[in-house]
Amino acid sequence: MASRTTTVAVVALIGFGAYAAPKTLDRFGTFLGGLVGANDAVVIGEGEGALMVAANAEAKLVNCERAAILAQRSCDGLRILIVEAAKVPFIARNTKLAWESGLPAVLTMDRGRQVANRKQACGKFTRGHGGQCDEYPMASTRQGGAGARTEEVPARENLCQGGSYRHQYPPDGEQFLVVVSRPDLIASGSFTGTDIAVDQGCR
């Protein structure tokens, strides 16, 4: 669906694994076509430049162009961590579902908690399809650990995530916002043993 003017972006609500009715968002972040729940996830824009963010964090992006967010990985001085659904569709799914369960999109870096947080989140995780445990919020954040949402993902995705996130993380103590690129490529269901990513490379 195309926008009617150059100052209007298209926003779709995500719920229960499918797109709900589209919502329209003006450049000041005001919804013109209905209300959005605090725990929804919203998609800003269309096509390859679309981004998904938790609804309660969407206001942190309204002053920045999507192209600049993707290129600079920041907006108004806040570091942006991009989860690339083209490469990690199951991790992107876990991230979206975590937001919808009420977990935050703005996290605080704390590498010192990584080992303990991962043990709390994934220590008793059952891997039914040969994959690995993904947790959100990440173990290396202050919000990680007990209460994190966990889901089985392909081992390749965890490898890609480690390299990608490491280069995007801010210094300890700083906050950052998590968003998902190419939300149209988020896995629609749980991992059952098949890696479905359209881009299975890592960088």
Biggest pleated sheet: 8 strands, mixed
Roughly what percent helix?
Answer: 10-25%
Note the quaternary state here. Answer: single chain
From the alpha-carbon coordinates, what is the Rg to the nearest angstrom?
16 Å
End-to-end span in angstroms? 33 Å
Low-confidence stretches: 1-34
Please provide the ordered H/E string of secondary-structure elements: EEEEHEEHEHEEHE
In percent terms, what proportion of residues is strand? 25-35%
SSE class: alpha+beta
Protein name: Deoxyribonuclease NucA/NucB
Domain Deoxyribonuclease NucA/NucB: 119-179
Region (Disordered): 133-152
Kindly describe this structure.
The protein has 203 residues and is an alpha+beta fold. The chain has one domain (8-185). It has helices spanning 66-72, 89-100, 114-122, 155-168; strands at 8-15, 18-26, 41-44, 51-54, 74-75, 78-84, 106-108, 132-136, 149-153, 175-181. The strands form two sheets. Strands 1, 2, 3, 4, 5, 6, 7 and 10 form an eight-stranded mixed β-sheet that branches. A two-stranded antiparallel sheet has the order 8-9. The longest helix is centred in the last third of the chain and has 14 residues, at 155-168. The radius of gyration is 16 Å and the shape is globular. The model is unreliable at 1-34 (pLDDT under 50).
